[in-house]
Amino acid sequence: MAQGRNRGDPLVRVKIYVEGGGDQARLKRECRRAFSKFFEKAGFKGRMPRVVVCGSRSSAYGDFCTAVKTASDDELPLLLVDSESPMQPQYQQSGNFKPWGHLQDRDSWNKPANTEDEQAHLMIQCMEAWFLADRQCLHDFFGNQFQTSALPGNQDIETIGRQQLFDALKNATRNTQKGEYGKGSHSFKILEKINPKLVFSASPWAKRLSDTLENKL
Predict the structure, then answer these.
(1) Taking 70 as the threshold, does the pLDDT of residue 2 lie above it?
(2) Residue 177 and residue 143: Cα distance in Å, rounded?
(3) Which of 8, 13, 78, 189 places its Cα 20 to 30 Å from the Cα of 215?
(4) What whole-number percentage of the chain has pLDDT above 70?
């Protein structure tokens, strides 16, 4: 750890390498602002992690691996990406989370040397699943024509398939003034507004991210 810290300084400087924003500078700015706002509302104001927006999912992994190699003693790189597919039971049994097992099986991503499981975090099965934890926010965002009944009735948001989720969001928003849900058009604006506490209650993997930040910041 770096020397000369003042009392109350964070234990480490956390950098979260997150997928999102694609190749567009505007969307990357929106993504960074949205995640930063989400973490601020989650209670980390004054000890915020730095959000590093990487574009594609594979770019996020590559940037994370580079960060691990070059990080100073007081820096902790974290990876945050969509799982893209269901989580197999062996990677989350009894609260024992093993994200690198999933990433190795699905993507052939190796866990970088000198890293821990707590440095990899997954949105199960994609970021949009978090939105279903705060359905009132979706209704407020899209307006009275939003069809809440078109959303999956399953309250276990981590088991909802990616395509099912996107189809449901499009059906629920089809008649709204803001139009059908679009990742580029709406996703980061919604992320800014949702209630993190509802997300952490609905998603054990999101709660794991919160717990990691709470322990490290």
Answers:
(1) no
(2) 8
(3) 189
(4) 95
Which long-range CB contacts under 8 A does 63-68 form with residues at least 24 apart?
A: 63/17, 64/17, 64/112, 64/119, 65/112, 67/15, 67/17, 68/112, 68/113, 68/114, 68/115, 68/119
CB 167 within 8 A of CB 192: no
End-to-end C-alpha distance for the chain, whole angstroms: 14
Tell me which long-range contacts 175-184 makes (C-beta under 8 A, separation of at least 24). Answer: 175/145, 175/147, 176/142, 176/143, 176/145, 176/146, 177/142, 177/143, 177/145, 178/141, 178/142, 178/143, 183/128, 184/22, 184/24, 184/27
How big is the CA angle at 33 (ends 114 and 216), to the nearest 5 degrees? 35
Residue length of the chain: 217
